[in-house]
Structures are given as C-alpha cells and as structure tokens.
User: Which sequence fits this backbone?
C-alpha cells in the first residue's frame, strides 16, 4: 500500500491512513511519500545552498522545522511518544543545520532530498506506536538499490527484502520509505520526482504481492483531465499497456516507470482514494477488461522536428542516420510519421535541440516547432473498434493537427497539436468520444 504526500500531509489524514492499514489482518508493506510540500521545500533548500545563499537556506530550514513541530503536536498526544518525536525532529533538523556549514555537493543534495520520506515514515511509525498497532519500520536504504546505469536492481532488492521479512515473520505491517534508494556507489539517491509509486511497484514485484495499491486523493485514473473538462469519470479497468501509455502521455496520477515492474512480475495494481476508500478506483492487470476508447491524456512541452530531403526518395538507411543523431544525444523520440520525402518526429526534451538540429541539417532541411502538445487516445483494440476514427476526426475538425500516429499499437492513437489548442481538443474529444461535457 503506497500513500502519496497529500494522503499523509495533514495529521488527520495520516490518522486515516493508519485506520486504512489496520482495517484487515493481511500482511502488508506500507510505502510512504514525504508530507505534501516537503520535497519541494527540500529542493528549494538545496537550490539556495547550491547558490551559496546560506541565509536563505537557514530561513527555509527553520520554516520547515516549525511546520513539523506543529504537525507532531497535532498528530500525537501521549507524552512519551511526543518526546520521541521531538527528539527525532531535532536529529533531522540538526542534520540539515550541519549541512549548512559544509560545502555543497551532489551527494549532499541527495541526502537533503531524502529527509522528507525519512521523516514521514518515522512519524507515522510513532503514531502507530501511540495507537498500539504492531508494525516494523524497515529502512528502504537497507534494500533498495540502483545499478551503475541508475536502474533499480530488482534481483538484489528481492533477495535483501526477503531476508529482512524472514527475520520478522510474525510482523503484520511493515513501513518503509518511497522514493529513496542507494545508488551503485552505495550513496543515498532517489528514484526522481514522483518516484514513490515506482518504489511501491518495485517492492510489490520483489515480494510477489497479491496487489500493489496506490492510494491518492482521486478515485482512480479518469477518462480525461479534470482540470480541463467539466465532467470526467474513473476508468474501472486498464491493461498494463494502456496504463503505461496514459501515465507516460500525461495522466498525473501515476509515475510512468511504475508500470513495468508490476507488469513484468504480473502484480495487479489498484489505484484507490484515501478520501473515499470504498470507491472502486482503477484496476490495472494484464487484461484490459473491455474494448474501445478508455481515456485521453495530454503531454505538453513537446518539440516537433521535420527533416525533409529529396534524398530520402527511394533511399534506404535514411531513417537510421536520422535516429542515430537522437541516440547520440540520448534524446528519446515519442511520435514519428513519415512521407516519401520527409520524416517528422517529436521529442520531450530540448536540452540538445541545437546540436540535434545542426547535425540533422546534414541530411536535409529541418523545421522545428516548439510548444506542441501530444494528445493520446488510449484504449483496447481501438483500431478495430467501430466508428472511433470517424468520431475522432469529426470532433477535431476545427483543430490544426500537426501529426497523427495511428497503428503503432492497437491501444493508442496520438495527435500532435499546438499547445494553445489543448483545452479545446480535450473538450471536443470528451464530447465526441465519451459523450461527456
Ligand atoms: N516525495 C517525492 C516527490 O515529491 C516522491 C513522491 O512523492 O513520490 O517527488
Ligand atoms: Mg505522486
């Protein structure tokens, strides 16, 4: 069971999480994010420190400490436990204060970022102690690890975690940190922003869990972006492939990398709502459950490149040369469409845009369009489902579509549109594909 930052961000919410994990007697591993806002605060502390502004860092550390002091006072009531909590906060904030005095480094940055999950899990453990729920806190830094490519080592995690669990066979509830891990050098590191979902999925895969439950504050994945359209509805069931496409192409509820461990080890994932625990949520398994369009999602900050060359006509090997340029600059391509004399691709990182464009110019003229959005229509066997294309194109007839990707898989159709048409596109698709406003 993984709980996100908002699910533990207020003392009252943390108490509700304790009720949820205590609701049945099944053995479980509970993975927690940092309290909402904490990782952002730690990132800021790190940033000002990196710029040498110790005064600003000190102020931010003090503000964060004050926040935790009042959090603890509301969370706990027994004197003995409150004392432990106070000591715990002193230790962690003393650590941050010491960091102020030493010279900043990347390893130190990772240590700073780890404080959020260390604090949330330790405080939660103290609350469980107070309400006398038997449990054990197991440090993620004892079993989570990355290889030298910064990829999680599932095999090693499996071995280490099962050794730890073996030692405490009678314990019904284990608590651990999301997000943090050790890297190949043995240092404290993390799984990137939003990485607690990834931790949960890796842990569920490593212990071959019955389910991996991701608890947030919305009742599952929705068919469209609730910030843009008026009416959305939760999706009951998704296949791993569909969920991966949605997570990658913009559904914010799940970290995109968190699908593969669950899929590879075939652990069903449930997306559940702490605010409404009895809501169905979304079940993600190897089966799609139904056919047809299930959701649309949008991903911003996309750059499109068109490489046009008469030399492409009847030539082979042209695409390889083009792709090699992207490979050289470790930039992945999301969409691709071709005509006989041109190829268009999209990328979501323009760190090396200048270099890439310069090298591509050796093969033809290059046009660059920035500030584009990919809108993905995701579902099961959508290419075989009657009328999808008809409804899709009828809905978007006012939208200047730059690229269409169809047939790459049976569960995705992607459109590339200028960013300023995103809202309109999601709205017309909500009506045209789902008959919702
Ligand atoms: N606390 C981390 C973050 O805010 C990890 C997570 O919450 O998933 O990115
Ligand atoms: Mg998250």
Assistant:
């Amino acid at each position: 069971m993984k709980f996100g930052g908002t699910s533990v961000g207020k003392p009252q919410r943390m108490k509700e999480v304790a009720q949820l994990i205590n609701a049945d007697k099944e053995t479980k591993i509970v993975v927690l994010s940092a309290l909402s806002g904490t990782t952002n605060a730690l990132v800021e502390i790190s940033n000002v420190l990196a710029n040498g502004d110790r005064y600003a860092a000190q102020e931010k550390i003090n503000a964060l400490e004050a926040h935790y002091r009042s959090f603890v006072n509301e969370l706990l009531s027994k004197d003995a436990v409150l004392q432990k909590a106070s000591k715990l906060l002193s230790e962690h904030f003393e650590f941050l204060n010491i960091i102020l005095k030493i010279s900043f480094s990347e390893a130190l940055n990772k240590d700073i970022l780890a404080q959020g999950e260390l604090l949330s899990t330790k405080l939660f453990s103290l609350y469980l102690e107070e309400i006398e729920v038997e449990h054990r806190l197991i440090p993620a830094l004892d079993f989570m690890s990355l290889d030298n490519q910064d990829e999680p080592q599932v095999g090693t995690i499996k071995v280490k975690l099962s050794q730890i669990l073996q030692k405490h066979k009678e314990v019904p509830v284990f608590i651990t940190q999301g997000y943090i891990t050790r890297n190949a050098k043995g240092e404290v590191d993390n799984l990137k922003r939003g990485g607690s979902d990834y931790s949960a999925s890796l842990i569920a895969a490593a212990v071959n869990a019955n389910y991996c439950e991701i608890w947030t504050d919305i009742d599952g994945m929705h068919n469209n972006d609730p910030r843009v359209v008026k009416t959305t509805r939760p999706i009951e069931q998704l296949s791993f492939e569909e969920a991966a496409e949605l997570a990658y192409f913009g559904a914010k509820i799940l970290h995109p990398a968190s699908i593969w461990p669950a899929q590879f080890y075939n652990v069903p994932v449930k997306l559940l709502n702490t605010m409404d625990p009895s809501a169905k949520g979304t079940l993600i398994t190897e089966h799609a459950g139904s056919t047809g369009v299930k959701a649309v999602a949008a991903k911003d900050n996309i750059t499109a490149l068109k490489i046009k060359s008469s030399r492409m006509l009847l030539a082979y090997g042209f695409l390889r040369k083009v792709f090699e340029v992207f490979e050289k600059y470790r930039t992945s391509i999301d969409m691709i469409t071709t005509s006989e004399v041109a190829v268009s691709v999209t990328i979501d990182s323009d760190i090396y845009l200048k270099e890439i464009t310069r090298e591509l110019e050796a093969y033809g003229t290059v046009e660059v369009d920035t500030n584009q959005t990919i809108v993905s229509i995701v579902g099961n066997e959508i290419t075989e489902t009657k009328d999808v294309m008809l409804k899709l194109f009828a809905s978007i007839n006012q939208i200047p579509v730059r690229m269409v990707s169809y047939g790459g898989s049976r569960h995705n159709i992607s459109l590339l549109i200028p960013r300023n048409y995103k809202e309109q596109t999601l709205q017309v698709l909500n009506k045209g594909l789902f008959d919702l406003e």
Observations:
- The chain has a mean pLDDT of 95.
- The CA atoms of residues 135 and 171 lie 6 Å apart.
- The chain has two domains: 2-210, 294-434.
